[in-house]
Amino acid sequence: MLVETTASVVGCSGCGTRARSKGRRRTRVRDLPVGGRPTVLVWCMGVWRCPEAACDVGSWSETSPHFRSRAVLSERARREAARWVGEDGVSVASVARGLGVGWSTVMDAVREFGEPLVEEQLGSLAGVRSLGMDEHRWRSRPDRWATGFVDLEWGWLLEVVQGRSGAAARGFLASENAEVRAGVGVVALEPWRGYLTPARELLPEATVTVDALCT
Fold it and tell me: What is the average pLDDT value for the chain, to the nearest integer?
C-alpha cells in the first residue's frame, strides 16, 4: 500500500524560503495486519531543498508522526504490539510473526511503551492486601541475590531490592507509612526465614505464612 502526503508548498525551517522539490524517496514500513495477514506500507516521503545559497539547511526529507526515521514498524503498530504483549499476554515471538518483523523489533516496542507503565506500579504497597516476598538469584551480577515483592492478588511485581536479607526486606517495608502497611492482610514468604522478623514487626496486623510460595 502506497502512502504519501499531498503538500506542494513547503518552507525552509532555517530561513523560511519556499523549498524546491527533489522528488520522493520510498521506504517500506510494516503496519497492523489486515485480515490476519502482515501489511506493508510504502511511505513515499517528499525530499526538499532550500534554494537560498546562504542558508545552511540544504536538503531534507519530510517527516510524519506515523513513521519514525528508519523505522521498521509504524507508530500504531508499535503501540499495538506492546499492548498485545503486555495486556493480552501474547508472546513476543507470536506478535513478531503476525507483523512480519523480528523478535527484537517487537521487544523494543514493548520496552518503550511498557516500562513507563511498570514504573507507575513499582515501589508502593498502596492498595496491596496480599503480599509475597521471595528471593531471586541473578546469574550475571556480582551481588547475585535480590528480594522481590509481589502483589499476590493481582500478580503484579511491586519492587526488587538488592540483597537477600532481613535488612533488604525491612528497608522496603519501612519506606511505607504505617497506614499503608496496615492494609496488608496476608504475607506469604518463601522458605528462607530471614524475612520473617521484619514482616512480623512491620506488618503486625497481617497473617504471615511461610513456604507458601514454594507450592
Answer: 87
